[in-house]
Amino acid sequence: MDLFENSIALQMGVSLIVGITIGLERELRGKAAGLRTFALICMGSTIFTIISKEIGYPSSTDRIASNIVTGIGFLGAGVIFKEQDRVAGLTTAAAIWATSSLGMAIGEGKFWLSVLGTIAILTILVVFHYVEKGLNRLHLARSYRIVYQDPTALGDLCHDLFKKYNLSSSRGPQSLHREYIVSNWKVRGKRANHEAFIAEMMKDPKVRELGY
């Protein structure tokens, strides 16, 4: 095995470790893309980058790199989905895109760049996760769907409770039926205040359904 093959083996090994490291964090959180997906993305990006250097002219390597980015964009879009009024999967999609860039850096032999990038990505995924949880305790946004038996009373009731628990709100679509109303609200405030609002609403016998 010559020096060139040794270099490729090193690049593939580093790429595998980087992909597994980031994928493990996603796997432990039960995300759509996990250990195997991130390992394959990182290694695939490394392989394509190495091939582009070996079989292409210097002016063509950037085209292959841009195609990698385009392909990863389609892959990332596959893990984004809408759940009621919330869009999920954006962080995993961004992590896929960022991990691909690390694979390309490894393919170019920029090992220090890949190490620093891995540390930065893990910091964002792990540390910022707890920062966001702390912020949510202070300023949590929720979408509520309330089914209430008294169509004429619900609006005033919600406004009074939102004011009582210091929650800011905006009314969404309303659906009026003969004996009940379906009302949607976007509400922001402290997590504890949300829980207090829910607890008081659930004591009301006219509440048929409360979802968020």
Care to describe what's here?
- The termini are far apart.
- The chain contains seven helices and six strands.
- About 25% of the residues are buried.
- The radius of gyration is 25 Å and the shape is elongated.
- The strands form two sheets. A four-stranded antiparallel beta sheet has the order 4-5-3-6. A two-stranded antiparallel ribbon has the order 1-2.
- The mean pLDDT is about 85.
- α4 (about 90-105) packs antiparallel against α5.
- The longest helix is centred in the middle third of the chain and has 28 residues, at about 110-140.
- The protein folds into two domains: about 5-135, no CATH class; about 140-210, ACT domain (Alpha-Beta Plaits, 2-Layer Sandwich).
- The protein is α+β, with helices and mostly antiparallel strands and about 210 residues long.
